[in-house]
Structures are given as C-alpha cells and as structure tokens.
User: Fold isopentenyl-diphosphate Delta-isomerase from Sus scrofa.
Amino acid sequence: MPEINTDHLDAQQVQLLAEMCILIDENDRRIGAETKKNCHLNENIKKGACAAGAVLLTSRRLPSDGRPGGAQGPGGDPVCPSPLAPPRGSRSSVRALQGREQKWQQAIGILKPSGEKRMIFNQEVSLLLSGLLHRAFSVFLFNTENKLLLQQRSDAKITFPGCFSNACCSHPLSTPGELEENDAIGVRRAAQRRLKAELGIPLEEVPPEEINYLTRIYYKAQSDGIWGEHEIDYILLMKKDVTLNPDPNEIKSHCYVSQEELKELLRKAARGEVKVTPWFQMIADRFLFHWWDNLNHWNQFVDHEKIHRM
Assistant:
C-alpha cells in the first residue's frame, strides 16, 4: 500500500482512517477488510485490486500466461495488469497473500519461476481489476413535514470537504455486529452509530429496525488527486422527527429542505456556486424526487437484488 503523509490533515479525521472497512467485490460479496485510509486512496482505487493483494476466489479455471503469478482469461487477455510475481517462487507468493487481512478459503493457481504450474488446493481465482471496493451506506432522513435533512460536510473532512449531502454517509466496520448481512442489519446498525456520531441523534431515536433498506448503488468518484470513493452504497430511508446535536468536526451546517429548495441548491451546484457530493448528485438525478413523491409508499422502491451501476 502507498505511504501518504497525513500530518497536515485534521487529527480527529486522521484517527478515523484506521477504521477497518469491509472489502467486497462488484457483486457485494465480502472478500476481506482494509483500513479506511487504504480504501480511500485513489492509487488503490484505480489499480487492479490484485496489485494490492485482494483476490476474489472462484471455481473457474484460468490458464497461466507463463509468468510467475500471472494468468490469462478465456480470451487470452491478462486477468490482472499488475500480477503478483512471487519473489522466490510460488510459496513466497502464497505466504504474501495469506499475510493480507483477507483470509482466503481457497488459494490460487500460479507458476513457479521455472514455469512449472503449481495448483494450491483445487480452486483458481479471478483477480479483481477495479481496485479496492468497500461497503458503504447513505441515509436519507425526512421529518414529518416531508422535508429532507441535508448536511454540509465540515472543512476538516478528508474526502469532499464543504460539500452538501444527505443526512449521513459512512461505512459499516469489519466487526461482528456490522458484518451481519441478513436484511442488511449490520449496515443499519452502522447507520445508527454514525447518526449518533455525526448528528448527535440519540440512539433510541434511530433504532436499526426503523431504518429502512431500499436498494444499493455502485459508484466511483475522486475527491482530489489523492483521495476518493469506490463503494457499493446501501440506500437507507427514514421518516421521523429527531433530536439534532451535530459534531462540528463532522458537519459544517445542516438544514431541512423542501423539494423546491433542494432543486435550487442543485441548480447552484450546477453553476459552481456550491458543491454537493457526487453520490448525492447521482441519487438526486435518478431516484430521490420519485422516492420523495411517494414517501408513504416507500416499500414499492425496495429492491435488494439489483445493484444500480452509476
């Protein structure tokens, strides 16, 4: 992983970079864990995840391309542009992979430097090309007047500082309670935790069972030349009047807006007068106002099978 100097960044936000995010493949299957810092570095997002040591295990057989650690797909194209070449033979390469946070259930078929093919167990792998991808969530919180809560991210935030966004955007952690996938309960527990941390909403006001899981989106966006996002984002919806006490290190400002007020904010963003987060812009463009028109019938928008590719 690349070394990045964080001395100039906000100390509280830097502490959060040590959190362990949930690494996933592009179908939201869990493959391991990595720090928030490494998950949000553009260098790790842009390059093949195989170069970072993350592999997705499959039962599909992949022929070797003749290089240590390299492989070809069915059409002869390299599976990974940055193969993990073992420095001292196949055993060293396997140890390197096993040393990662990911604990593989099966292992890869690779070549010894001599060219002799060596199969580790009976499974081979498909190497991810899209870079480190992690699980995230976005909460859309409406009050009983059908107004949407917006936050403006603090200037201390490492990604997208000062941008307007929905009520809360964060990620579940690689912990037992937040790894649980049944009905996205782990993600909803994470949302409760972050609603408290960012907005100061008492935990009892946002129990996970009242946070509704609608669907998922996949997106990638750069914040600047160093930091970015690459997520499958669980869309969570809640309609309730809540108590707010925002943390100024997380939130610069907040407000409830009507549909017309949000449309005016988005027009200002289009003119460059304000900034909004890319995921919020994407969701507003494709989904948000339709959901908003049907808040009392939100169940019709539940789709836990599809991942919307943005």
Helices lie at 11-16, 36-39, 42-46, 90-98, 176-179, 185-199, 259-270, 278-293. The longest helix spans residues 278-293. The chain has two domains: 48-130, 134-309.
